[in-house]
């Protein structure tokens, strides 16, 4: 990728960082007894792996530097501890929400709403910030997909 | 840049004034007439907004300082922050006088009579003119107060110019505040200014997203682009789900020797010298032939020098060799190693059959 100067900072670490984090998370996952004993493909395993993928991606991408990663990790931690439904919308910044509702362009608001539902932690963000987060999120997601693809290809029996 | 030509013409018209500035030195405490006169400079001149941090004691000095920015033969560097130091030579003084004369001739009357209200703002050198050294940095040397209301009045003056204004309502990503310049023919109340700034922020980020998502450049219209972006995000998330399902299907057993491997991997990846440390790892010598053959292969690969890309031709890993980055290649070697650790017992995995499309 060309290293063009972009004032909006959306750099993403290299693939090996993602791979490392993912493998670490997977190994942590595997040390759990509940994971290995049921040998059948249960949906739990899938879910756990999926969650591991997201968590590792969030960590690899700079855990607390980005809003979406923070929110992701927060969600994951909460789900581990208790069944508290995470509040997607932050209660803070009411002035922000008010401003959003006032100034929103109707065209982009609909799409922005959908985007907010997709990107973790998108509830409390303004549209411009949301798009920054989306860009970073897309980059990290594609990295993660590449890593997982490699892993799956490497592991799949021929 | 058409502005330079216009400036040249203007300078000719104004009388040997090289860079006719549209100065609005805001902190002229003293000279009332001179200040407004300066503000009502001929509309043909460039529109500039200069904010000085320190209100100079004398109006003339301020005027000189304001004018001296663009006038002196080597124009002083436009350091927006902090006190501007200007050579106060005779030429500047006479230019100041000349400007006041010119300003008196042409009264536009669109001055809102604002005085040094924004003097607390660090100087802003929003040079529109032909300064050769003008880079983005000089334009980025902007600061704004929270209230764009201050600028709106200035922009009203700006609007009086008949010339096309330079569209300098760029967004500054680096600094916390954004200067917004009202464009010609546009409303200048604070709401619309803020709205415009916000819209441009969003447009800038939209462009960024368009570059990210493949196939978005062709699409016109923000709604479709946003839809495309949303589809892309959704497809990526679905891909993650698919791959996690496949991973869950593929992994029957677990090997617990990953810890040492990953620990060393961690250090090596961070150091960048992944090659040596990963290979010199105390690998768990599993009994699978895959592991051993893989291990042998990696021992062979230690011979080539470190920074070089591993010669993948002799090995059946052609796909890996396509990685430009050495780190990636090594990472995938380790990835394979780790994954083979994971696949203890599944002897069906042969390294020479493994091809990773990256």
Automatic annotation (TrEMBL), chain A:
Cellular compartments per GO CC: nucleus
Positions of the IBH1-like N-terminal domain: 18-79
Record keywords, A-Z: Nucleus, Transcription, Transcription regulation
Keyword check for Phosphoprotein: no
One BP term from GO: regulation of DNA-templated transcription
InterPro entries recorded: bHLH_AtIBH1-like (IPR044549), IBH1-like (IPR044660), IBH1_N (IPR059002)
Compartments where found: Nucleus
UniProt keyword Zinc present: no
Principal cellular location given in the protein's record: nucleus
Protein name: IBH1-like N-terminal domain-containing protein
Organism: Brassica campestris
Origin organism lineage: Eukaryota, Viridiplantae, Streptophyta, Embryophyta, Tracheophyta
TrEMBL record, chain B:
PROSITE patterns (alphabetical): BHLH (PS50888)
Subcellular location: Nucleus
Ranges of biased composition (kind: Polar residues): 106-125
Positions of region (Disordered): 106-176, 293-332
Molecular function GO labels: DNA-binding transcription factor activity; protein dimerization activity
Main location: nucleus
Pfam families tied to this protein: HLH (PF00010)
Residue span(s) of domain BHLH: 186-236
UniProtKB keywords: Nucleus, Transcription, Transcription regulation
Key word Transcription present: yes
UniProt cross-references to InterPro entries, sorted A to Z: bHLH_dom (IPR011598), bHLH_ZIP_TF (IPR024097), HLH_DNA-bd_sf (IPR036638)
Compositional bias of kind Basic and acidic residues: 126-143, 167-176, 321-331
Gene Ontology cellular component list: nucleus
Transmembrane regions listed in the UniProt entry: none
The name this protein goes by in its record: BHLH domain-containing protein
Species classification: Eukaryota, Viridiplantae, Streptophyta, Embryophyta, Tracheophyta
């Amino acid at each position: 990728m060309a290293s063009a100067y972009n004032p909006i900072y959306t750099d993403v670490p290299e693939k090996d960082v993602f791979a490392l984090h993912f493998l670490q998370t997977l190994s942590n996952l595997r040390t759990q007894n509940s994971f290995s004993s049921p040998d059948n493909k249960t949906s739990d395993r899938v879910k756990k792996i999926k969650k591991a993928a997201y968590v590792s991606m969030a960590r690899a991408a700079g855990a607390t530097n980005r809003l979406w990663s923070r929110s992701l990790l927060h969600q994951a931690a909460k789900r581990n501890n208790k069944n508290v439904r995470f509040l997607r919308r932050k209660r803070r910044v009411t002035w922000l929400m008010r401003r959003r509702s006032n100034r929103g362009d109707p065209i982009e608001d609909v799409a922005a709403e959908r985007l907010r539902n997709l990107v973790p932690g998108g509830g409390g963000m303004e549209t411009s910030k949301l798009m920054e987060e989306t860009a970073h999120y897309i980059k990290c997601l594609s990295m993660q997909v590449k890593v997982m693809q490699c892993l799956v290809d490497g592991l799949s029996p021929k | 840049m058409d502005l330079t030509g216009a400036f040249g013409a203007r300078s000719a018209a104004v009388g040997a004034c090289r860079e006719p500035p549209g100065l609005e030195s805001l902190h002229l405490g003293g000279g009332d007439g001179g200040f407004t006169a300066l503000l009502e400079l001929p509309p043909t001149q460039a529109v500039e907004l200069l904010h000085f941090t320190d209100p100079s004691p004398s109006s003339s000095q301020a005027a000189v300082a304001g004018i001296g920015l663009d006038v002196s033969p080597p124009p002083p560097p436009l350091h927006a922050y902090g006190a501007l130091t200007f050579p106060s030579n005779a030429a500047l003084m006479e230019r100041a006088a000349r400007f006041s004369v010119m300003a008196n001739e042409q009264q536009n009357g669109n001055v809102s009579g604002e005085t040094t209200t924004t003097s607390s703002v660090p100087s802003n050198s929003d040079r529109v003119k032909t300064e050769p050294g003008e880079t983005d940095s000089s334009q980025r040397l902007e600061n704004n107060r929270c209230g764009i209301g201050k600028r709106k009045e200035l922009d009203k003056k700006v609007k009086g110019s008949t010339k096309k204004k330079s569209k300098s309502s760029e967004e500054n990503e680096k600094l916390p505040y954004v200067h917004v310049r009202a464009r010609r023919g546009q409303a200048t109340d604070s709401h619309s200014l803020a709205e415009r700034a916000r819209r441009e922020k969003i447009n800038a980020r939209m462009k960024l997203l368009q570059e990210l998502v493949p196939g978005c450049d062709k699409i016109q219209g923000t709604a479709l682009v946003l839809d495309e972006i949303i589809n892309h995000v959704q497809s990526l998330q679905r891909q993650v789900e698919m791959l996690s399902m496949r991973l869950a299907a593929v992994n029957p057993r677990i090997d617990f020797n990953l810890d040492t491997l990953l620990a060393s991997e961690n250090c090596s990846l961070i150091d960048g010298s992944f090659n040596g440390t990963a290979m010199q790892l105390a690998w768990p010598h599993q009994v699978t032939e895959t592991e051993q053959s893989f291990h042998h292969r990696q021992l062979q690969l230690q011979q080539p020098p470190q920074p070089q890309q591993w010669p993948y031709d002799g090995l059946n890993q052609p796909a890996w060799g396509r990685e430009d980055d050495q780190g990636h290649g090594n990472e995938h070697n380790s990835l394979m190693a780790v994954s083979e650790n994971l696949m203890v017992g599944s002897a069906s995995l042969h390294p020479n059959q493994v091809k990773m499309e990256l």
